[in-house]
Write a structure and sequence with these properties.
This protein is of the alpha/beta class and 226 residues long. It contains ten helices and eleven strands. It is 35% helix and 20% strand. It starts with a strand and ends in a 12-residue tail after the last helix.
Length: 226
């Protein structure tokens, strides 16, 4: 997660700035370089876009040079999805919590097929704007895939994933699971038939591979362009 160019960590009280073991903030370019060495893609949440409707497009463009990105920039209408893709992001994430309904999803799909749909879930069920005609996650996924968007992310908030729901959604196409689990639990994701997992940055920062890289000096954001 990025807010005003700073890497953020999730907490129960909301995102807070991430800090290296030496107390210094993480440079987003350095962190992307470290993550992409071990992971196939980076799922980036642009909090400026989600919270204010003003995604950090210039920063996203620079980061997309270094790694394949899926970006959730708080897209509400179709044209905003194209703004995300123009930065060089591999896919734009459209969320049930922010997108203005099925009509905007259909418009976005007509403009580009490089889309992912996030089904956000909370403790009571589906977290979605009122414009969505379905309040059942499986029915919503059916409607989304009927439009043509087959890449689905299931994102439970403050609750553990329902592996039965993961299995049901995965039977219909590529499915990723966001959640409060670690890389060590990837077998649970695979056993449920999902394509992969989205692992929170606080857990990745504690991984042996990333801790080892934290011992190296922090380079400036654009040293590689010197």
């Amino acid at each position: 997660m990025l807010r005003h160019g700073e890497v953020q960590l999730p907490t129960k009280d909301g995102p807070v700035p991430a800090r290296r073991p030496d107390g210094e903030p993480y440079d987003p370019f350095d962190l992307v370089d470290r993550l992409v060495a071990d992971y196939a893609l980076i799922y980036l949440v642009d909090l400026d876009g989600v919270e204010t409707g003003e995604p950090q497009l210039d920063l996203l463009q620079e980061l997309a040079r270094d790694a394949p990105l899926w970006v959730d920039g708080g897209v509400q209408v179709a044209d905003q999805a194209i703004d995300i893709l123009v930065t060089g992001a591999q896919r734009a994430v459209l969320s049930s919590a922010t997108l203005h309904g099925l009509q905007e999803l259909t418009r976005a799909w007509r403009l580009s097929s490089e889309l992912v749909f996030e089904v956000e879930l909370d403790g009571t069920g589906l977290a979605a704007r009122a414009e969505w005609p379905a309040d059942d996650p499986l029915e919503l996924v059916r409607q989304v895939r009927e439009v043509g968007v087959d890449h689905i992310v299931l994102s439970p908030r403050e609750v553990d994933p329902s592996w039965e729901l993961v299995r049901a959604v995965s039977r219909g196409g590529p499915t990723w699971v966001d959640g409060s689990f670690s890389v060590d639990e990837i077998d649970r994701v695979r056993q449920a038939g999902a394509q992969g997992g989205i692992f929170h940055i606080d857990r990745l920062l504690g991984s042996p591979a990333l801790r080892a890289r934290d011992a190296s000096p922090l380079r400036s954001a654009r040293d590689d362009e010197a």
